[in-house]
Design a protein that fits this description.
It is a single chain. 55% of the residues lie in helices and 0% in strands. The chain is built from 11 helices and no strands. The protein starts with 8 loop residues before the first helix and ends in a 24-residue tail after the last helix. The protein is mostly helical and 220 residues long. The chain folds into 2 domains: 96 residues, Helix-hairpin-Helix base-excision DNA repair enzymes (C-terminal) (Endonuclease Iii, domain 2, Orthogonal Bundle); 101 residues, Endonuclease III, domain 1, CATH 1.10.340.30.
C-alpha cells in the first residue's frame, strides 16, 4: 500500500537519489525480459504482456513472429488464426484485435514502420503510455516518460515517491522525482524489485536491500 500523504518534492527526490545506487547494484541488467528483434516485435510482445507473464509471452512470440514477419502481415492476418496463436496469453480476442488494428494503422499511416513519438504511438489500438514508453525507451532509446506497471505503482507508493494510484498520475510524480536520464533505468529496477522482493501480498522486508529507506517497511 502507498504511504499516507505525500512528502515534499525535495524529500522525494533526495530519497530517489539514495535509492538509485542501491538498486543499480542489486539490479545491474536493464535488458527487457521480453524477446524481440524489431520495434514492431517489441510492440506486439508488450501488448501481449498485459495481464500475462513475460515468460508466457516469450513462448508464444517465436511462432507468431515467424508467421507474421512485418506490419503488413499482421494487418492482413486471418483473425481466427491470429487468435489461436496468442490464445495462451489470455484475453486473446482483445489482444488479437488490438494487434491487427495497430498493424493496420501502422501500415496505413506510418508506412509500415512503428512511429517514434509518444503522441503517435498512443493513437494506435491497444497502446497506452506504458506500452509506448516501453517501445520508445527500449527500441528507440528515447525518454519521453516513465513506464508504470503494477510493480512500479506498488513499489513507488511504498517508497513514498508518490501517493497516487492512477498510472498517469504516478508517472507524472516519478517524472518530477527522477532525473530524465533515470526515467528508463529506475522504473525498470523497481519492476525487478517488485518481482523479487516487494511482492504485493508478502513483501520480503527482512531481506530487502532498501528497507532503511522505505517508509512502509514497518507497516507491511
Amino acid at each position: 500500500m502507498a504511504t499516507r500523504g505525500i512528502e515534499s518534492l525535495r524529500k522525494r527526490r533526495d530519497r530517489a537519489a539514495e535509492l538509485k545506487p542501491i538498486l543499480a547494484d542489486r539490479y545491474p541488467d536493464l535488458t527487457v525480459s521480453l524477446d524481440w528483434g524489431t520495434p514492431l516485435e517489441l510492440l506486439v510482445a508488450t501488448i501481449l504482456s498485459a495481464q500475462c507473464t513475460d515468460e508466457r509471452v516469450n513462448r508464444v512470440t517465436p511462432a507468431l513472429f515467424e508467421r507474421y514477419p512485418d506490419a503488413e502481415a499482421f494487418a492482413n492476418a486471418d483473425r481466427d488464426e491470429l487468435e489461436g496463436l496468442v490464445r495462451s496469453t489470455g484475453f486473446y480476442r482483445n489482444k488479437a484485435r488490438n494487434i491487427q488494428g495497430m498493424a493496420q494503422r501502422v501500415v496505413a499511416e506510418h508506412g509500415g514502420r512503428v512511429p517514434e513519438a509518444m503522441d503517435e504511438l498512443v493513437e494506435l489500438p491497444g497502446v497506452a503510455r506504458k506500452t509506448a514508453n516501453v517501445v520508445l525507451s527500449n527500441a528507440f532509446g528515447l525518454r519521453e516518460g516513465v513506464v508504470v506497471d503494477t510493480h512500479v505503482k506498488r513499489v513507488a507508493g511504498r517508497l513514498g515517491l508518490t501517493a497516487e494510484t492512477d498510472p498517469v498520475r504516478v508517472e507524472r510524480d516519478l517524472m518530477q522525482v527522477l532525473d530524465p536520464e533515470d526515467w528508463h533505468s529506475f522504473p525498470w529496477r523497481m519492476i525487478l524489485h517488485g518481482r523479487q522482493r516487494c511482492a504485493a501480498r508478502k513483501p520480503d522486508c527482512a531481506g530487502c536491500e532498501i528497507r532503511s529507506l522505505c517508509p512502509s517497511a514497518d507497516r507491511l
